[in-house]
Amino acid sequence: MARRLRADMIAETRASLIAAGREAFGTIGYAAASMDELTAAAGLTRGALYHHFGDKKGLFAAVLDQIDAEMTVRLRAVSARAEDRWTGFRDECAAYLAMALEPEIQRITLRDGPAVLGDPWSWPIQNDCIRMMTRGLDELVTEGVLAPLDPEAVARLIFGATQHAAQWIAHAPEPEAALKSATDAFDAMLDGLLSKPT
Q1: Which of 108, 93, 106 is nearest to 175 (CA)?
Q2: How far apart are CA 106 and CA 179, in angstroms?
Q3: In terms of Cα–Cα distance, which of 146, 142, 165 is closest to 154?
Q4: CA gap 81, 186 in Å, rounded
Q5: Residues contacting 99, CB < 8 A, separation 6+
Q6: What is the distance between the alpha carbons of residues 64 and 47, in angstroms, rounded to a whole number?
Q7: How many CB atoms lie within 10 A of CB 54?
Q8: CA 152 to CA 12: how far, in whole Å?
Q9: How far, in Å, CA of 93 to CA of 84, rounded?
Q10: Contact predicate 23/41, CB 8 Å
Q11: pLDDT in tens, 88-143
Q12: How far is CA 156 from CA 55, 91, 109, 183, in A?
């Protein structure tokens, strides 16, 4: 019983720190977020942050993981509503680009993420995404929907395109216009992958 209560307390402490970090990183950004203010907002000490995450960068990585997991759930829901696998894939890509308009995703994932954690290609969550995308594209090639191309190569090209387009949207002076242009261009690019282009 005591062990379970301790596990609950550890989970609650981590959740409180992640929530406080997410609020701070999402509103004022990583550089301006003070560890003292952040831990005070969580009702904890800097020692708790060091114990659970090592440092502010470790907490930021945990926040980014949480946001990424939520984005994945949302994107899978978009894909699940589609009438077929290919439409679902396209809708999921478009939804990812549209998320670049959301302030929290813009600041934490697209702006501060690369500055704090380095090249997104080195993030474990990005490599997981590429593996999942490769599996889905492989099925579409097997079904004859897509041209007989290497699914991993296609996944990496699509992933790179969506990443750079999302960065462009997040930093554009007119993000809505950039989203429209990126989505139109991305749709045309995806059409080129079909066995029989529309």
Answers
A1: 106
A2: 13
A3: 146
A4: 20
A5: 71, 74, 105, 166
A6: 21
A7: 11
A8: 39
A9: 14
A10: yes
A11: 999 999 999 999 999 999 999 999 999 999 988 787 778 888 999 999 999 999 99
A12: 32, 18, 19, 18
> 14: closest CA among 74, 71, 65?
65
Q: Is 192 helix (H, G, I), strand (E, B) or coil?
A: coil
Query: Residue 196 and residue 99: Cα distance in Å, rounded?
Result: 30
Please check whether residue 8 is in contact with residue 16, taking contact to mean a CB–CB distance below 8 angstroms. Answer: no
Cβ contact 126:117 at 8 Å? no
Sign of CA dihedral 88, 89, 90, 95: positive
CA distance to 62, 114, 124, 128, 167, per residue, from 117 (Å): 11, 5, 11, 17, 15
- Please check the confidence at residue 21 and state whether its pLDDT lies above 70: yes
Residues in the chain: 198
Q: How many CB atoms lie within 10 A of CB 23?
A: 16
Residue with tokens 């994107």: 75
Backbone angles phi, psi at 194, to 5 degrees: -70, 150
pTM of the model: 0.88
CA atoms within 13 A on the CB side of 85: 14
Cα–Cα distance for residue pair 89/47, rounded to 1 Å: 44
Query: How do residues 31-78 score in pLDDT, each as one tens digit?
Result: 999 988 888 888 888 888 898 999 999 999 999 999 999 999 999 999
